[in-house]
Amino acid sequence: MIQFNQVSKRYPGGFEALKNLSFQIDAGELVFLAGHSGAGKSTLLKLIAGIDRPTAGSVVVNGQNLASISRGALPFLRRHIGLIFQDHKILFDRTVFDNVMLPLDIVGYDRREAARRARAALDKVGLLGREKLNPISLSGGEQQRLCIARAVVHRPSILLADEPTGNLDRAYALDIMELFKSFHQVGVTIVISAHDESLMADYGRRILRLNKGQFTQ
Amino acid sequence: MIHWLRLHRLALLATLRLILAHPLASLFNLLVIGIAVALPLGLYALVSNLQGLAGQLPTETQASVFLHTNAGPADIGRVQTLLSQDPAIASARHINKHQALKDLEQTSGMADLLAGLGDNPLPDSFELTLKDGASTDLAALQTRLKADAAIEYVQLDSEWAQRLASIIRLGREAALTVAALFGAALMLITANLIRMQILTRREEIEVSKLIGATDSFIRRPFLYFAAVQGLLGALVGIALVGLGLNRLNGPVSQLASLYGQSFQLHLPSPPVLGLSLSTVALLSLFGATLSVGKHLRSIGN
């Protein structure tokens, strides 16, 4: 599903965020990405989503090499990926419901079917009663849930979450982790990054530990 | 196909929502576009109305030739031949001075006064119709004819009509030039409006790109917005011209009635209005395309 071959990423200015990484994540796997801030977790996730391109090596997602993918093909790859951002990237100029509709509008879904799916996604994250609100009135944890609903509403085969529990207290964080677990159970490939390893340990899944752009054991 | 239509409907709805969401800003934008449209269109309307008026005037070029009052039959015969041989003259009609006096007595009601005159004060004259194209060389004709000793005066009756026609041609050119200038301005205005829109919706564009929006999906609402705004702005412009002409119509018909005419200013014909609408929409669309192409690349990946 996701394959890195000797991938390096150097940003303009010379900072080397990732150094010669090779690994593979199989379809349906749930993998944690651990490491301190600045260890390269976000960069790694950005490479999988095609937001950044590797300076060396190849990143293969869904059989497509992102090092050489054309600009026109990128959106169609992204439609197989659900992205959950640490800063949520929620749009505050529209309702909770319309935020979740966005990925379906982009694909051009039938309006009624889209609305049904959006409600199902909101129900899944426990926000169904608040669909008409402006997201500004949601708490931090609720905004994170909204972000998750938007990431899964179009049923992606890969879910990438960058520090989804970063700003949440432990009870909220556990809730969110349970959500991911349920997506994993229906066969979604999931990569979750976090700097707090205590949450990961309970799940007994593979953990990739990054330090200064390299894997450690 | 249905999918494609759905995407376009979505973009159009988003456009209308956007216009209604900021009524005051939208109104200002429409007024800016409207004024840019109204100036050349108004000028054009005035010029074409004037042209309609000029169309009612005699267009073929006429001239009158007056002989000295003491000119005899031999002189008249010579001038008649001279006129019939001149290459610029299509026909010449002789008006006998006795006949002219009789006509004057009948039309002016000054029979008593004229009867009191000993001599006929009127000269023999010729009414000329000039050939097409001769109008360009009227001055030459004038000097040519004046060379004959019997001819006292050559008057070009339609000279002022030709001046009017030249002025109208000039006005037409001016309208076109102004239209071109304002067209370019309109494009730049739209490009700038779209640029500001892109900047205010930067976040939305960024997020949309991240979740799989194609470039055309992102571009589409901006292009729709520009085209719809251009159309509405052009309608505002036409309305402004209509109001302006309506305001002028009172004094204009008063002026016309002084000359025993009835005359009203009208908006340009529907085809011209349609052409203006579509030109404005296309120019806006073009400006938006330039702007979107330039600025979208700078946002996200």
From TrEMBL, chain A:
Function of the protein: Part of the ABC transporter FtsEX involved in cellular division. Important for assembly or stability of the septal ring.
Domain ABC transporter span(s) in chain numbering: 2-217
Key word Cytoplasm present: no
Protein name, as recorded: Cell division ATP-binding protein FtsE
Record keywords: Amino-acid transport, ATP-binding, Cell cycle, Cell division, Cell membrane, Membrane, Nucleotide-binding, Translocase, Transport
Top-rank lineage group of the source organism: Bacteria
GO biological process: amino acid transport; cell division
InterPro entries xrefs: AAA+_ATPase (IPR003593), ABC_transporter-like_ATP-bd (IPR003439), ABC_transporter-like_CS (IPR017871), ABC_transpr_LolD-like (IPR015854), Cell_div_FtsE (IPR005286), P-loop_NTPase (IPR027417)
Family: Belongs to the ABC transporter superfamily.
Single Gene Ontology MF annotation: ATP binding
From TrEMBL, chain B:
Keywords recorded for this protein, A-Z: Cell cycle, Cell division, Cell inner membrane, Cell membrane, Membrane, Transmembrane, Transmembrane helix
One GO cellular component, as annotated: plasma membrane
UniProt GO BP: cell division
Membrane-spanning intervals of the chain: 174-194, 222-245, 272-293
Membrane-topology descriptor: Multi-pass membrane protein
Residue span, FtsX extracellular domain: 62-154
Matching Pfam families: FtsX, FtsX_ECD
Location, primary (coarse class): membrane
Domain of life the protein comes from: Bacteria
Annotated family: Belongs to the ABC-4 integral membrane protein family. FtsX subfamily.
Subunit structure and binding partners: Forms a membrane-associated complex with FtsE.
Name listed for the protein in its UniProt record: Cell division protein FtsX
